[in-house]
Design brief:
single chain; mainly beta; four-stranded antiparallel β-sheet; 1 helix
Length: about 140
């Protein structure tokens, strides 16, 4: 059975998920800028709080995790629940930063934007290809 295009919109609206933006690909948009002696990462995390974000440095990778838990409840004048919605989700990104120390990475969070500063001079250079001659 095929629906008219207008009917598809009606059904889409019935099942609209207001929290779906947290789980999509654009949840952690990141801009990376190279400055004189450091890299600056600006990561968008709208709707998250500072407490929702964890950062970890492991095996040369900087891991950024954000977890969101929401519980919404609406009641009428008599205290009866009209609507109750729950959401729980997380998103994460990893960046290769090389052989640097945890103390060298600085981060701040303000108004839904996570700013991470990573020193540039401690990153090891990738060794050039060297060919071995065969006798």
């Amino acid at each position: 059975m095929k629906f008219l295009p207008i009917m598809n919109d009606v059904f889409d609206d019935l099942f609209y998920d207001s929290f779906k933006n947290y789980s999509n690909v654009n949840a952690m948009r990141t801009d990376i800028c190279e400055q004189n002696d450091q890299y600056l990462l600006n990561m968008e995390l709208p709707g998250f709080k500072k407490e929702d974000i964890q950062m970890e440095l492991k095996d040369g990778y900087l891991l950024v995790n954000a977890t969101k838990n929401a519980d919404t409840e609406e009641k009428d004048d008599q205290g009866h629940v009209i609507r109750r919605e729950r959401y729980s989700g997380s998103c994460s990104r990893s960046f290769y930063v090389g052989d640097i120390r945890q103390e060298d990475i600085k981060a701040s969070f303000d108004n839904g934007e996570l700013k991470i500063t990573i020193p540039k001079d401690n990153v090891k250079q990738v060794e050039e290809k060297k060919y071995i001659s065969i006798d």
